[in-house]
């Protein structure tokens, strides 16, 4: 075979790759490599075949050989960078993309690749500059708008993400990834109905897209349209019976009755070789839920345990470090501190802070209160946490938070408070109260009391073992490292209990404790206390909380669509023999044998 015929064969192989005929491309490349093992174009094309098969190691090896033979081809370096990126070798990937850009400064895909490596490593400022540079070269480059929007989305900057993603979708209406990212951004920003319409539009063009059916199911579940959500999860599994996220989500929208369930199939799926950890995690949590419904508690616990053990997202929980944070907060925010500084913040009564350990009933309290015509439920907001992170810079360089709050003056306090109020007023309409149910704000009640001395604070409590297991049995979307080990959960709940006792003693604002067990036993009486605590007149709508159509995006989205039930009370007793590490960590808080 002459070199010219090799070139023709490379072109043919590339056409096979472009049309998704990977097996034909692989066969052709094997023949080419036997006759032309040192041909850069052949090695590069064979490497692309490996890349399409997700054999990134093979792709890197072959394309590296190609660039060693021909180091003047920008496309080779760009594709090498992408293979290295997929293999999580970010340093070498960035070097390859930068080499491609040196060879061809106007090469848009290389700029895009470099930006995505920087995004992967959370260097968002640099990533955004790369995407903007690509747009300076070509203002109509839809992919650059898309990944710019994704970078904003990953920083929870929805105000910038949505318009940029709209631009990407408008430039290329058939660009499904941009459409999906736009729908996700809209759903996160509260525009669930528009997000739903975009996803349904995608399904009209790609009715077999399993991921979209799963996403549509999630939005419908959050909107309380459970029957419709179930149909989409079931459709996803009809198309791909091995789609682990759909198995997990379906398990969370209904009770398993023992007659029809996919437990046996999912058990077989777990035995498959090459199953990635994320799919395994989804399957373990789905199986745990199914076996719990069926009363097979040992099987259920083992699957929940396996799912948590596989979850390596974020850093591990540092119980000792968390304990030290609690000590510092208690030392800083004492009675003397508030005697000197209370009242420097806003006079607004609008904010209602609902705090507690996750799964302690915060969603139920918010759903109940937001059923009142004068209350808007804003969900879990990160604004207070962000203000705390920026506090040291707000007061000037010096001590870290919380020690730096001694430097917070009235002007700065009012500005922080007004920024928060401006944010929560955006969607509040005529409401005079807005709920923020970020559970972890229990850590920030000191600064909250300083910024909003007339705010409403509601603390949700639940039997420690029950709330711990409810966290342990939940695969949270947001990373919650403390929920993956029983002893970490015990330490976290003990810290929560300790600081809440401190807040009750020192805060000049009254805190209403809402016990989950009392809320479910006598919903009307407790609801009236909550409404009164928020400074409002009673409204019967608060008893119909499960009929609300507002999106609920937390792990409790299914539960709060049901009338009050008590089946989760004392659930821990089913697992008493499995939770010795939890009880030991809880210490005096643990239920007595």
Description:
The chain is mainly alpha-helical and 593 residues long. It has a domain at 321-589: 3-Layer(aba) Sandwich (Rossmann fold), CATH 3.40.50. It has helices spanning 3-18, 22-35, 40-52, 56-69, 74-86, 90-103, 108-120, 124-137, 142-154, 158-171, 176-188, 192-205, 210-222, 226-239, 244-251, 263-270, 277-293, 297-310, 319-332, 335-341, 362-370, 383-389, 391-394, 410-425, 445-451, 464-472, 486-506, 516-521, 523-533, 580-586; strands spanning 351-356, 375-377, 433-436, 456-461, 511-515. It has a 5-stranded parallel beta sheet with strand order 2-3-1-4-5, sandwiched between helices.
At a glance:
This protein has 593 residues and is mostly helical.
Q: And the CATH topology of one domain?
A: Rossmann fold
What radius of gyration results from the CA coordinates?
27 Å
Helix content: 55-70%
CATH architecture assignment name of one domain: 3-Layer(aba) Sandwich
CATH superfamily of one domain: P-loop containing nucleotide triphosphate hydrolases
Cross-sheet strand order for the largest sheet:
2-3-1-4-5
- What fraction strand? under 5%
Name the CATH class of one domain.
Answer: Alpha Beta
Low-pLDDT segments, ≥5 res: none
Amino-to-carboxy terminus distance? 81 Å
Number of helices: 30
Mean pLDDT: 90
Largest β-sheet summary:
5 strands, parallel
What's the total number of strands? 5
> What shape does the CA trace take?
globular
* Main structural class: mainly alpha
């Amino acid at each position: 075979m002459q070199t010219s015929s090799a070139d023709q064969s490379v072109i043919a192989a590339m056409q096979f790759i472009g049309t998704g005929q990977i097996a034909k491309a692989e066969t052709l490349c094997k023949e080419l490599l036997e006759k032309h093992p040192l041909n850069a174009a052949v090695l590069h094309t064979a490497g692309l075949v490996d890349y399409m098969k997700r054999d990134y190691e093979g792709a890197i090896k072959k394309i590296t050989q190609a660039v060693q033979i021909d180091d003047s081809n920008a496309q080779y370096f760009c594709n090498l960078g992408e293979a290295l990126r997929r293999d999580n070798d970010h340093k070498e990937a960035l070097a390859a993309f930068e080499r491609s850009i040196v060879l061809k400064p106007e090469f848009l895909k290389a700029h895009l690749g470099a930006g995505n490596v920087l995004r992967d490593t959370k260097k968002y400022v640099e990533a955004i500059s790369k995407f903007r540079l690509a747009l300076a070269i070509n203002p109509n480059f839809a992919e650059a708008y898309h990944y710019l929007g994704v970078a904003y989305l990953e920083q929870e900057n929805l105000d910038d993400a949505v318009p940029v993603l709209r631009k990407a979708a408008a430039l290329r209406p058939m660009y499904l990834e941009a459409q999906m990212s736009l729908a996700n951004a809209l759903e996160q920003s509260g525009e669930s109905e528009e997000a739903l319409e975009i996803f349904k539009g995608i399904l009209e063009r790609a009715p077999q897209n399993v991921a979209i059916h799963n996403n549509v199911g999630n939005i419908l579940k959050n909107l309380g349209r459970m029957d419709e959500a179930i149909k989409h999860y079931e459709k996803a599994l009809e198309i791909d019976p091995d789609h682990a996220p759909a198995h997990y989500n379906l398990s969370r929208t209904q009770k398993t009755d023992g007659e029809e369930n996919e437990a046996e199939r999912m058990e077989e799926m777990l035995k498959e070789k090459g199953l990635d950890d994320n799919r395994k995690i989804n399957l373990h949590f789905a199986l745990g839920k199914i076996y719990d419904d069926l009363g097979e508690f040992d099987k259920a616990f083992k699957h929940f345990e396996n799912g948590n053990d596989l979850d390596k997202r974020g850093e591990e929980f540092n119980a000792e470090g968390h304990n030290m944070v609690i000590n510092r907060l208690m030392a800083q925010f004492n009675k003397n501190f508030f005697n000197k500084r209370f009242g420097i913040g806003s006079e607004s009564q609008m904010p209602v802070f609902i705090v507690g350990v996750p799964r302690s009933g915060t969603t139920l309290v918010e759903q109940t209160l937001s059923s009142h015509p004068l209350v808007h439920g804003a969900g879990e907001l990160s604004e207070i946490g962000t203000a705390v992170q920026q506090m040291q810079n707000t007061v000037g360089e010096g001590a870290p938070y919380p020690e730096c709050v001694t430097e917070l003056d009235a002007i700065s306090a009012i500005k922080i408070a007004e920024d928060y109020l401006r944010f929560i007023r955006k969607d509040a309409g005529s409401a005079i109260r807005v709920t923020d149910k970020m559970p972890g704000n229990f850590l920030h009640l000191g600064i909250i009391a300083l910024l909003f001395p007339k705010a409403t604070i509601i603390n949700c409590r639940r039997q420690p073992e029950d709330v711990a297991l409810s966290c342990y049995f939940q695969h949270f979307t947001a990373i919650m490292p403390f929920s993956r080990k029983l002893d970490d959960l015990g330490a976290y709940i003990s810290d929560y209990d300790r600081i809440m006792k401190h807040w009750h003693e020192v805060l000049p604002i009254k805190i209403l404790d809402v016990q989950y067990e009392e809320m479910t036993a006598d919903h009307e009486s407790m609801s009236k206390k909550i409404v009164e605590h928020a400074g409002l007149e009673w409204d019967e709508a608060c008893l119909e909380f499960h009929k609300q159509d507002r999106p609920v995006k937390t792990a409790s989205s299914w539960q709060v669509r049901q009338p009050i039930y008590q089946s989760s009370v004392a659930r821990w007793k089913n697992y008493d023999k499995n939770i010795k590490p939890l009880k030991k960590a809880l210490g005096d808080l643990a239920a007595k044998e």
